[in-house]
Amino acid sequence: MMLPGWRQWLFAFKVSGAALLALGIALWVDLPRPYWAMATVYITMQPLSGATRSKALYRVVGTLIGVSAAVVLVPPLIDSPEMLTLGLALWTAGCLYLSLLDRSPRAYLFMLAGYTAALIGFPAVTAPETIFDTAVSRAEEITLGILCASLVASLVFPEPVGPVLAGRVGAWLAETGRWTGDVLSGAGEEPAVRARRLRLAAEAAEIDALSAHLAYDTSAQSRAVPLVQLLRGRMLMLLPVLSSLADRIAALRGLSGLTPELRSLLADVEAWSAAGAPAGEAGALMVRIEAADHPLPPHPSWTALVLASLIDRLRELVAIGQDCRALQDGIGRGDGSLREPLAYAGEFGGRAPRHRDHGMAARSALGAFLGIVACVVAWIATAWPDGATAAMMGAVLCCMFATQDDPVPAILSFATWTGIAALAVGVLQFGVMPLVHDFVSLALVLAPALILCGLLMTNPRTLPVGLALGVNGNALLAIQDRYATEFGAYVNSGLALVGGIWIAALVTRLVRSVGAEHGARRLVAASRADLARAARRRGRGDRTAFAHLMLDRLGLLVPRLAAAGPDSDLSRIDTLAALRVGMNLVSLRRARHGLPPEAVASLDGALDAVASHYEGPRGPASETLLRRIDAALARVEAESGGESGHGARRDALLGLVGLRRALFPGGPPPGPALRVGEAA
Fold this sequence. Notes:
Blueprint: H1 6-28, H2 34-44, H3 49-77, H4 81-102, H5 107-121, H6 131-155, H7 161-184, H8 191-211, H9 225-254, H10 260-274, H11 279-292, H12 302-333, H13 358-382, H14 387-400, H15 408-432, H16 439-457, H17 463-477, H18 487-511, H19 516-536, H20 543-564, H21 575-591, H22 597-615, H23 623-639, H24 647-663
Transmembrane segments: 6-29, 56-78, 84-101, 108-127, 142-158, 361-381, 410-433, 439-458, 489-511
Pfam family, one: FUSC
Protein name: Fusaric acid resistance protein
């Protein structure tokens, strides 16, 4: 195990300092539960200052909404505990549902609004007349913790998001450059290269998640948020373009279509990419690519069609690569400007859609609802003095780990470390705290434990441990302005914390846990459904929006495929090939608006066959679909035999070529042209 570096120690000292600052202020202004402020610091604090601030804003707003909900729900329903339980459980579950659909920093607003109402509402059951005062106090304590975390993160050796993001983008583009070299040299379809391109998709999703915090950053790069969005779109488009290039090069090699001139062009593009895609050389490469792009003849051969498709992808590769470097330079400078116009302009102005799984969000919400109800039933049935604590923890834990496919291991780990925290805090509470008489000695006593919690939070593997100790440890310690504790009450409180977590784990196991493979299958099914819809619809479609959605799913799918293991049938899915199908479907939907009616009818027949394939069970594409695609190729050729090779005819032909190669990569070239009007 590696020892913590200076960054980890810095974060540990910052989070512990923020917690002590929140505690000191809370004691100074005589807040009734200062430990709420300390626990909030550990929930809010992030290693990067921009991430802390982005979450802090939404946490404050969410807390105020949750407080208001508790004040509205508790007084009128206090004489009907069943209705109050249902009201708080439904509120928490509904907010969790919205949080899981959002998938941005704004999701914290919904989540905090949900379980804050439970945190305030359940303890107020025994003293409903104090609900307003309790709500105000909790809002003050939680807000104080959030503000202290944000203040320390921003002023004490801040770790801005911008430089980290710029470094991640640079590493991603460097790895993409290596993949480009493999593709252009003909090694793009080797298993090791295919595995690496999936990692690039997952890393692109991580960079996207990191960029969501950039607008809240204090670094120079915070002014480059529009450039980051433009770069993200091009990064995503680069993946299917490279995948298509690898496929076309392999196809031309099998057709003996890689002429010396084409090999020379590919080698020069490879050298340009390896040199960092210098802008000064892109223009000369584009001239050579345009010279190699010959008009399609009236009846082009399959080799000519594949070659034309390769040239199109090569043109896109150079334009996107040039833009990526220009945007990377602009982001690095931090002034939000570009020194040269973008070559691939006009493709990325729209909203970037994200994957939303309403089914799993509803299932998670149901788990939270039932978990809260189960805790309350146990509270009432046993007349548990601290049953409100169990209900609170059930609500929090069902929400906190709801984004995971199987939250139970994390919840049980949280329960285990909460139990360990209870034992350690008990020693501190009854053995050391009676000797503390001022804030300085209190800070000295607490600092080692608080720093240890911060260190544990810096490692993803020990993050749940640090959270359990930092949040529940502070809650169990229950520091107030004077020492007053009783052993029986402390034991009850500890048992309620652990008991509420265990009930949450049990209900989650029964209702919510699905596993990584189930999550992967849902993502694959959602992508297939979108491909079927893209084929059925006859509009022009938005190619970039479709790429954003499919690659967002791909970023979610890659870690789940790794967790599912090599023996799963999902490991054989070519996820980028499915994305290429989608891109070609959108291109065909656009091209059909410029074709004669007879060609449109044949093209629609092929699109309907694609839709039927993706609406059915997962498996290889049928020979019927292959014949439909070949029939559409023949019809488009025949109806537009006199065209110059550009426009709708070219787009339709190359779209069909791309569709055929993505669905039938090992298929033989098309045979003689089908008779016009033949039903395939």
